[in-house]
Amino acid sequence: MLRLTQTLTQWLEKGGAEIGEVRIGVREKEFSLCHRDDAGREDLAIFHGPEAARGLSNLDDHGAYRPLKSAPNLRHGWALFISGIEALRHALDYFYPAMLGVWRSHEMRTLSPVPLRETLERQTGMYAVTRKITDRQAGAMVADFCRTDGGCLKRILWPLAPGTPVPSLPVEKTNAFAPAGVMPLLCHEACNLLVARAREVVKKGEHLA
Fold this sequence. Notes:
Elements: H1 2-13, E1 18-19, E2 22-27, E3 30-35, E4 45-48, H2 52-58, E5 78-83, H3 85-95, H4 99-107, H5 116-121, H6 135-145, E6 155-156, E7 182-183, E8 186-187, H7 192-208
Parallel strand pairs: 1-7, 4-5, 6-8
Antiparallel strand pairs: 1-2, 2-3, 3-5
């Protein structure tokens, strides 16, 4: 954890100010967080401490639960004040679990993306059927489920299979590059929600056959 704290400190010192939909302000040893769309607003509800990030990250603007923390539907209207870099790291981990560590691994070139086929081959029980998904089905599924607008903010680093990229994704969705001051959210392996969607796709195909 010390290495992650150092990584976060160095990123902030270089002008880091945004991760996902969270904007970070720095004033001496205090940090202020808000939705990036709310930067500059003075009518925000005030919260304090990293634990408050748990509740703020759980619901969208309509009060609905957010099963995917990297979905572009983080609630608006709040400002979170935190003292200390350790507390900031904990807060960011509530908003975007493990993303600081994944980004650090990518920067150190130790991150190993896992092909979708490899992820599906590991599935057992009711999810073993996902191995039957075709490349065409998988491409369409990923393009819809993982799209940045309304799906997921992460950049997809994994291919369908070794040497076979996901052809349905735009270049910016598979590029880890981000503007200065922005820490990109990186996806190095398909999530459980996508695996569950793959099962739905396969079962629907079997039903229509």
